């Protein structure tokens, strides 16, 4: 299958056809029955169309409200991720730039390691929120565990023997029952290379399994740049979308398979198929299943460690109160965004409203062929099918996007958001925070251009009272007046060229 056809199939799978086809077939069958009975027998099933006009207007308004409400939730989720992106970038900048690496008997290397570790925790926050919204509990994921595995694991870290009851909540959630042995002490890189990897298979995680990547991530593998760490249990892929098959592209095949399993009473196979569909996020008829609610403390605990780090900086007088306020405000923005995302995910529309709306729409579509039969004749079947597809489609679109945090094509690209944060944070920490003298007074810098093309390195050798633009400031004495004239001439030149070029 070539790339173009594959893309076409993905686009088709992103529609709501997989969700509404059973209902469209049902109402089309009703229309067929009405037409055949009315034309092949003496019974006339047509009824007056007055009810169609009244209910049509009401249902149109209600369905429109349902769709717009769902889109507001979708847009709200995107806005919250924008807030996480901004707050993460701000936190990384403040930590990397404003926290000093020298003075007060601070070891420079130790301070840089400390700051980079905290910046990594900022990156881990967005990844933890992503897994939280997708209903994936715990920290044992390829894109999350390497960033936070160094955090305290036990309540009593100095106990001679670590026991299961001492495991902190961060590491307890998501653990497999069979993996209860404590993690061995980390070794040096030299020792790790000399160890027999086959004997340490249960402890050594190479992160060789790469999770499937969503469109847009094909040029970069986020997990590939994370450190290789030990884990007491295998790490799950950072992204585990449901597998697709021909049944997802041709919904009728899925229905026929499900019907055949029922007819032949293959209970075991039916159960297995149902389990597979549940794992893939859809039921036996292919309808999207809602992810169950999940309590997770991973993002909150990451915020606790960041908050404790800020408090440590204040106690040591390493940062000023305005910087501490900025750090605290951005951390609060992260927590607020996480709470709003959790609210969007766990607050669906009331069940009574959804049921009443769907039942009203079903009744409307059920009586539709009875009312349009006199005017449409043999076109009543395609007209009913089209109306069912149109109205049910809008209803399903609202249900599809009201929880936009999964793996569907219509969901938000959470992996792309986390990737963007990862890239920006690493770009911030790539700079070593030089003093202005290093880059300002350079042979490449021409600060007074276009009026004065001399470099900052050349201008640095001129005394302030001797400065003068060559060949221009004939009426101005050298010094500050000449500098002001230079800046004014630069503005006049730029204004003239950009307006009349």
TrEMBL record:
Annotated segments matching region Disordered: 174-196
GO cellular component: plasma membrane
Molecular-function GO term, any one: chloride channel activity
Pfam families: Bestrophin_2
InterPro entries per UniProt: YneE/VCCN1/2-like (IPR044669)
Topology with respect to the bilayer: Multi-pass membrane protein
Compositionally biased region (Basic and acidic residues): 185-196
Compartments reported by the entry: Cell membrane
Keywords for the protein's UniProt record, in alphabetical order: Cell membrane, Ion transport, Membrane, Transmembrane, Transmembrane helix, Transport
Domain of life: Eukaryota
The keyword Transmembrane is assigned to this record: yes
Bilayer-crossing regions: 20-38, 45-65
Protein name: Uncharacterized protein
Lineage, highest ranks first: Eukaryota, Fungi, Dikarya, Basidiomycota, Agaricomycotina
